Amino acid sequence: MDRNADAPWSKFDPEAYVDVNYRTPLDVDLLILRAMRDHFSRCFRDSAPQSVQGIDVGAGANMYPALAMLPWCEKIVLLEYAQPNVEYLERQTVDGGLDATWNAFWDVLLEDPAYRDVKPAGRVSEIVRVERGNLFDLDGPQRYDLGTMFFVADSMSECPDEFRRGVRCFMNTLSKGAPFAAAFMKESVGYQVGDQHFPAYRVNEERARESLAAYTDDLEIHDLHQVVRKGHEGMLLVLGRRNSAVALP
Question: Which among 142, 220, 140, 139 has a CA at the least distance from the CA of 183?
C-alpha cells in the first residue's frame, strides 16, 4: 500500500498537469466551478464577515478554487507540499503572473454579479500567498473562514487512515460557519502526471459522507459521473459549512 510519504512529490510536473486538465477547460470542472461559486455566494452575499481568511489546501497546479474565493477574502493561503507546484503557484501569484489559462474559468465566475467588480490578476497578486506545508500539519486551531480542498485527501495515498486524517485536518482548520468545497476523484486507482505515477484512495459517496458528516450539518454531495481519464469512475463535489463541533482528534 503506497502512503503519502512514498509518492514522488518532488517530481510532480505542474505544466504537464495543467496541459492535461486545465489548458482546455473540462466540462466537469466548469460544473464544479459553477456549483462552488453559487454556494459561496449564497453563504456570503448577505452575511460575509468583515475579515475573511481563506485557504486552498493542497492547491497543486490549480488556481480556480482561489479565483472562486476572491470576492469574499482579504487574504487567501495556497497551501502546497510539492516544491514544483509551489514554484508554479508563486509564478501565478506575482504581479502580472496569472496565466491566460485561467481566463475561461474566470468567465464562468463572472456569471455571478459578486465577481464583476474584481480584477482577478491584480487581486490575486494582492491577497493570495503561497505557503509550502503538509496537510497533516494543519491539525491545529480553527482559523480560516472559507476553505477549499480539491483532489487532495483522496489523491495522495492509498491508505484509508491517511484519507480520513487529511479530511479531518482540513475541516479542523475551518472556523465555525465557514463555507467549504471539497472534491474527490471517485474510485480512483491512482493517476499519472508526466512519467510519474501517484497513489489514490478509492473514495465513493458513502466514504466521503462518513469522513465529513461530523463536521457539518448541511452536507451536499454531488455525484458527477464524468470520467476524464482511465482509472476512476467520476468525481464527487462536497459543499457545506463547518458546524460548531470542537476540533475532532
Answer: 220
Give the list of residues 6+ apart from residue 244 with CB closer than 8 angstroms, or none.
176, 177
Global pTM?
Answer: 0.94
Rounded Cα distance between 143 and 95, Å, is 27
Domains detected in the chain: 4-241 (3.40.50.150)
What pLDDT, in 10s, does the model give residues 39-81? Answer: 999 999 876 666 899 999 999 999 999 999 999 999 999 999 9
